[in-house]
UniProtKB/TrEMBL annotation:
InterPro entries hit by this protein: Cyt_P450, Cyt_P450_CS, Cyt_P450_E_grp-I, Cyt_P450_sf, Cytochrome_P450_fam2
Lineage: Eukaryota, Metazoa, Spiralia, Lophotrochozoa, Mollusca
One BP annotation, GO: organic acid metabolic process
Protein name, UniProt field: Cytochrome P450 2J1
Residues engaged in binding heme: 322
Cofactor(s) required, per the database record: heme
Length: 379
């Protein structure tokens, strides 16, 4: 697919530097890493939990509801709008995003074997991306003239116009569209997938996290971002989920800017480099012989404090580390602490072993599963 050297992912040089710098600056203005964003997330989490309550112990696959909720958070920032979960345009966008992430593993092959783009299968992928871009292009048209203090799109347009007036800039409509594509799609799917993996693991390990929440927060209020340092085991379980599920096994492709020699291997200038995060996150030399076992305690030190191993790299490394890392951490904490505080998570079937199999697309998506949720009875 021809990205025309635009956006936050496939660009390099001055284009990438400016898009990355502007994108990060604007997102910080909208509260990334601040309590104002946490409050927005908490509002959406409340809607999410109320939707789950409606199932009242009936078997449910939470993936779609979780997708709708996660998408609403990033949409509220990017386009300044929260959708009703049954909105037709919203549903169409989420369906296309799901197809994109579950079936686009093949798209990476075209980077290395360009002739594959002439095969029919590739055209299906192209049409999928075009469908998403058309929906998001309409978002831009409806948002670009609104208050730049409230909407990423309007803020980008205002910054672009200012830079055009004062000199040259790489900011333009296509860079904006591709940035919106990355923010909405990536901000929706990776958070959703992590939550679904966490819940799958928690079907076997829920009690310890609930006890921690009950001790430090209780049931008289919902968890807040200020509670994050207190819930050490929950944070460790989130990290272990990100490590073991390895949600995004390969990071953003890089280009070797000049010939390098690493361990006697010559890497020519212009070579494409695919960082394999999977090989680090599951390496038994790093994590021990039980690296393929879910064990949150590996992230807790002898003093009961949360460890931060340098090998823990689910968001990538270097200057191209995930732009939404701080938002993702806040989302995961608030969603998962609130979910465990409010609901019992139970297996649908008597066999307690979860099916830890996955669909390998751009992300490692757990195969569909159902569970039962019961509201906790507090006295």
């Amino acid at each position: 697919m021809d990205d025309q050297g635009k956006g936050l992912i496939v660009t390099s040089g001055q284009v990438w530097k400016e898009q990355r710098s502007v994108g990060l600056s604007l997102l910080r203005n909208f509260g990334f890493g601040k309590n104002i964003l946490a409050e927005r997330i908490q509002d959406e989490v409340s809607h999410y939990l109320d939707q789950l309550k409606n199932y009242d112990g009936k078997p449910v696959d939470i993936k779609r509801i979780t997708t709708e909720s996660a998408a609403n958070i990033i949409c509220s920032i990017v386009i300044g709008k929260r959708f009703e979960y049954n909105d037709p345009t919203f549903q169409r966008l989420l369906t296309e995003i799901a197809v994109c992430f579950s079936s686009h593993k093949q798209a990476a092959l075209i980077t290395f074997f360009p002739f594959l783009k002439y095969l029919p299968g590739h055209q299906i992928l192209v049409q999928n991306v075009k469908s998403i871009l058309n929906i998001e292009k309409d978002f831009i048209v409806k948002s670009e003239n609104k208050d730049p203090d409230d909407i990423f799109i309007a803020s980008y347009v205002a910054e672009r116009d200012s830079r055009i007036a004062s000199g040259e800039t790489t900011m333009d409509e296509m860079n904006l569209l591709k940035s919106v594509f990355v923010l909405i799609n990536g901000g929706t799917e990776t958070t959703t997938t992590t939550i679904c993996w966490f819940v799958l693991y928690m079907l076997n390990y829920p009690q310890k996290i609930f006890d921690e929440i009950n001790t430090h927060i209780g049931n008289n209020r919902v968890p807040s971002n200020q509670d994050r340092p207190k819930l050490v085991y929950l944070n460790a379980a989130i990290k272990e989920t990100q490590r073991l599920a390895s949600i995004v096994p390969q990071s953003v492709i890089r280009i070797c800017s000049k010939t390098q020699t690493i361990r006697n291997y010559a890497i020519p200038e212009g070579s494409l480099i695919v960082p394999n995060l999977d090989s680090v996150l599951l390496d038994k030399k790093i994590w021990g012989s039980d690296a393929d076992v879910f064990n949150p305690d590996r992230f807790i030190d002898s003093k009961g404090q949360l460890k931060k191993p340098e090998e823990f790299i689910p968001f990538g490394v270097g200057r191209r580390v995930c732009l939404g890392e701080s938002m993702a951490k806040t989302e995961l904490f608030l969603y998962l602490s609130s979910l465990i505080q409010r609901f019992h998570l139970l297996h649908v079937h008597p066999d307690p072993r979860p099916l830890l199999d996955y669909i390998h697309g751009i992300t490692m998506i757990p195969k569909p599963y159902q569970l039962k949720l019961f509201e906790r009875a507090y006295t």
